[in-house]
Amino acid sequence: MSDLRRTPLFERHDRIGARFVPFAGWQLPVQFTSIVEEHRAVRSSAGVFDVSHMGRFEFASTDAHAHLQGLLSNDLDRIAAGEAQYTLLTNESGGVVDDLIAYRRSDDTYLLVVNAANCEADLARLGPGVDLTDDSAMLAVQGPGALAALEVEIEAFRWAEGQVLGVSCLIAGTGYTGERGCELICARDDVGLLWDTILERGLVPCGLGARDTLRLEVCYPLHGQDISAERDPYSAGLGWAVAPHKEFVGSPALAAVRESGPREKLVAFVMRDKGLPRAGMALIGGGVVTSGAYSPTLELGIGLAYVAAECAEPGHELVVDIRGRHRRGVIVEKPIYRPGEEY
Q1: What sign results for the dihedral spanned by CA atoms 226, 178, 50, 54?
Q2: Using one digit for the tens of pLDDT, what is the confidence trace for 112-138?
């Protein structure tokens, strides 16, 4: 792992017993205690994730707004300064190069937070004027008790600059768990103090494992598995993030898909038989699992899979080939988990 990058918090993670894995060129904690314990802490109270590996681009230019409008799928005219938007960077064929959050500062300045594995591909498509910043760190504090623990008030998909537990931060009402909370971007030199103070408040440190099971329960796609440069947003159920009235890279191809309808769809499913689905497992009769795991909330196997569009309705049964054994599952409405419901 000597060639892998490390976040500024690596030594702190190591001291409290984190188990590390390679991910997108980084050495990151997959768990501190157990994935199930960390997952349930976020669903019931609050947890904190070190997400400093995420790419952070600053785009400052007199034509920043117009330039990004011609590249990103969603409509930046729908957000004002201090607001954020989920959007897609697509290629000429309509495939998803990356999914990202755009934070609007003004017409001239944006912050883009992208997937770590896609930084180089994103930079190549975004063009000149976009700078990858490496002088900051990023934490995600998630769960029903997250904002109260931080003494912060922020609405979903809004952002502001201010003090959090004595540290200057950009505070964003975004996250990847399906729970309320925020993401905090601060100076690299300050993140150690912020992390320590958050843990002193009783929040649970969480790793990549819980982040994956949490996002899967709410059916948030993972780029490179559920979405990719070879698949279009409509097939992935992300048509809501495509503005049909504007032109951007890939919009003609996506208009054709919108007109004809996708041939396959990304569906959510739960297992009826015992067995855990995993990415890459085939479905009997056609289709493939793109994400799968044990759900600590439902206490059974869940997943996302591409199936033929005509077989994508909730209630439709599917069969997963789990290492040569055929195990039944059923398609359900997205998301699989909804905050506040009993499971």
Answers
A1: positive
A2: 999 999 999 999 999 888 888 889 999
Q: Which class does domain 263-343 fall in?
A: mainly beta
Q: How far is CA 231 from CA 149, 227, 249, 257, 292, in A?
A: 40, 6, 15, 11, 19
List pLDDT tens digits, range 210-255: 999 999 999 999 999 999 999 999 999 999 999 999 999 999 999 9
Query: How far apart are the C-alpha atoms of 293 and 320, rounded to whole Å?
Result: 13
CATH of domain 10-49+136-216: 3.30.1360.120
Tokens 């990023």 locate to 138
For 245-260, write each residue's pLDDT tens digit.
999 999 999 999 999 9
Q: Dump strand ranges (E) for the chain.
A: 19-23, 26-31, 47-50, 55-60, 84-90, 96-104, 109-114, 130-132, 136-142, 159-164, 167-172, 181-187, 204-206, 264-271, 288-295, 300-308, 317-322, 325-332
CB 96, CB 90: distance < 8 Å: yes
Name the nearest CA neighbour of 138 among 104, 118, 98, 111. 111
Q: Does 8 sit behind a cis peptide bond, omega within 30 degrees of 0 on the bond before it?
A: no
Structure confidence at residue 127 (pLDDT): 87
Measure the CA–CA gap between 286 and 312, rounded to whole angstroms. 12
pTM for the structure as a whole: 0.97
The residues spanned by each domain of the chain are 10-49+136-216, 263-343
Site of tokens 């490390």:
6
